[in-house]
Amino acid sequence: MAETRDRTGGCSCGAVRFAARDVPLAFGICHCETCRRWTGSALLGVTVPEANVTWQGADRIARRQSSSFAERGWCRDCGSPLFFRFTGNGAPVGGIELPIGLLDDTEGMFAHNEIFIDHKPAAFGFAENDRQVLTRAECAARFPLLDKG
What angle do CA 85, 89, 92 make, to 5 degrees? Predict the structure, then answer.
């Protein structure tokens, strides 16, 4: 089993906070158009089982079905992106993706993979050392839910 740590984090104004158990050290980077527009950059996020995340200020979380296969949440007060999660028929499927920029401590974390690599702006200079990189077509083949949107 990969090493994990418990982490805390929250939005920029502090209205929403969370505690997450067993957060993997490995995170992913997504360059799809929706993630870039949502974050203003690439989404650097770590996937955690939803049951492992507890929220304070949950009434301040706004949600939107951002595609046929995913929901995104953000702070109603400051607009900070809080999570991404796959949905199936409107219900959560799998874990919740937390932007690592929200974490109070990212000690020991490292980029493990990059997806939608063929949509990465040329100006983004992430080093592609030892992590997996996938094109849009490779993502669709690996994650069938993506074909629905």
Answer: 30
Q: CB count, 10 Å around CB of 39?
A: 18
Q: Domain tally for the chain?
A: 1
Tell how far CA 78 is from the center of its chain. 18
**CA pair distance 128, 76, nearest whole angstrom:** 35
User: DSSP 3-state helix, strand, coil percentages of the chain (rounded to 5)?
Assistant: 20, 45, 35
* CATH number of the domain within which 9 lies: 2.170.150.70
Of the candidates 146, 121, 130, the residue with the CA atom closest to the CA atom of residue 66: 146
Task: Give residue 43's domain range.
Answer: 4-148
What pLDDT, in 10s, does the model give residues 56-88? 999 999 999 888 888 999 999 999 999 999 887
- Whole-number Å distance between alpha carbons of 65 and 86: 10
Strand partners, 86: 70
Query: CA of 69: how far to CAs of 66, 91, 115, 117, 146, in Å?
Result: 8, 10, 16, 20, 7
pLDDT digits (tens, 9 = 90+) for 5-54: 999 999 999 999 999 999 999 999 999 998 999 999 999 999 999 999 99
Single pTM value for the model: 0.81
